[in-house]
Amino acid sequence: MTDEQERQADEATAGDASSTGVDEVLKSINPMLASVAGHAEQKPRVVAVMPAYNAESTLEKTIADIPRGTVDEIILVDDCSTDGTVELAKKLGLTVIAHENNRGYGGNQKTCYAHALERDADYVVMIHPDYQYDSRVIDVAVKVMQLGILDFVMGCRIRTRKETLDGGMPVYKYIANRILTTIENVLLGQNLGDFHSGFRAYKREVLETIPFESNSEDFVFDSQFLAQAVHFGFKMGDIPVPVRYFDEASSINFGRSCKYGLSTLGVMGVYWLNRLGLRKSNLFKAQS
Ligand SMILES: Nc1nc2c(ncn2[C@@H]2O[C@H](COP(=O)(O)OP(=O)(O)O)[C@@H](O)[C@H]2O)c(=O)[nH]1
Ligand SMILES: [Mg+2]
Q: Rounded to the nearest whole angstrom, what is the distance from the C-alpha of residue 104 to the centroid of ligand 2?
């Protein structure tokens, strides 16, 4: 252990001891305060999940960017990368799960969430291992959920047009995002700033309720998940998340983006057919 790690461990222990002392005093004063003290003792378990595909060149930076103490465990699911993602993730001490076959981004998230639930997560944060999203917002996302304001937090990459385009989002992605986000807000009765962000955080209950195993193995998994969250009545909202654009952080090309956009519109159709009772979909069937 380095001196710095030892100092931080000492500080953490000292913090625990003093809060335990305060809790004991509160408990001895009055039973109502005791319940407050009990509440203060419960530290939620936050698990970060990383759906990875050829992330060797950005993984270490992404992990270093996560503020210390904000997550209790990081699970990386590798979707058959052809680079050294798995070896590096193990070296960095992450919990690593490797797919035997390439399943796709949706398939990857299914493994991420199933394992996060198995590992007793109270809150699950998805962060891409491509060093694109600013991890400092993890804590804020969890706080907003702890306060009961939201069940499902999206990171919004778009504050102003100028900032987003100057930041490097390709113009065609920006325009498609604005159009799709507007349509989705209207059709789903929401007011999110960015329906297509890769920064997402959930309360455990959201992942226990949404039958995400029925979703697509491809990118449209994300759009299905959002429609499902609306269907099951979860409170969704967003917080701003700064992003970085560089070659390794963005591999989705024009063709795949178009396919994703059209499939997303398809999901809106499936949602409304289900809602009107014209054609029921398994996507909206509660988990048994
Ligand atoms: N499983 C899988 N994941 C992929 C593939 N391509 C990209 N991803 C993952 O999908 C996420 C989003 O891709 P990215 O290129 O960063 O998209 P962008 O930032 O929105 O342009 C990243 O976490 C990638 O690891 C793929 O072919 N298979
Ligand atoms: Mg990216």
A: 14
